[in-house]
Amino acid sequence: MRPRNLAVALLTASLLTGCATSVDPLERLGRKAAQGVRPPSPAAVDQAYRRWGLRAPLPAPPKPPARRAGAIPSTGLPEVVDRVKTSDPVVFLTYDDGAEKDPRFVDMVRELRLPVSMFLTDSVVGPGYGHFAHLMSVGADLQNHTLDHPSLRGLPYAGQRAEICGQRDKIRSRFGVTPRLFRPPYGRYDTTTLRAAADCGVSTVVLWRAATTDTGLRFSRGRHELRPGDILLVASDDDDLDGPPLRDRTTRLLRTIQERGLTVARLQDYL
Length: 271
Hints:
Layout: H1 3-21, H2 25-31, H3 42-51, E1 79-81, E2 90-97, H4 103-112, E3 116-120, H5 122-125, H6 129-137, E4 141-144, H7 157-175, E5 181-182, H8 191-199, E6 204-206, E7 210-212, E8 217-219, E9 231-233, H9 246-259, E10 263-264
Helix pairs in contact: 2-6, 7-8
């Protein structure tokens, strides 16, 4: 090889190597999640559920209905939901902020193949995006919960749009996916929020009908019992350092879901 060509080749290899090492390996792992996760054997699934404190595996959810993924209603504003209109015996697990980064929870999601949705806030996640890349690599969905977790209701359009679009861009740049579901902090929003969300590509604003507490579930409306289509918030215990970890609160909720004859489905498949 001629000296000049050799120099060009070495420079190209150096640049490629530099590009490869400039991205967090965990984030690269998360970007590959869209290719799917190999399913474990039925025996392994049964053992996993027992290992996580459940007597039996959750039933597989039915095939979700055909929907126009990402479609925005004719009003031009995203739909606001706290439950999905379905007769399928399914509920949906959602988690907010990203304050808790328990590696054992990643193991739980992987082993039980739990379809969970994580609504992330940049200022809360901080340097911990690699943890959520791990979660994404085992099947979790990563969605939008603003940059800084402000109460959006009453804020000017520009500020709300910056919060929503800013976190959309963070998730897209780190993981190569564009979140189309959005949860406003504290569940507070107004018409301006919906306009800003629509302009940031949001198809659905996701609230919750029930949230976990120390004693069970707190329902925001309707009958105080789980129903098909309910969106559930596994509330954070980051203010209680002695409280049960995320995996234990999830196990307790899964037992309640099983007692009601329900199972867990992937939220994005229904919205």
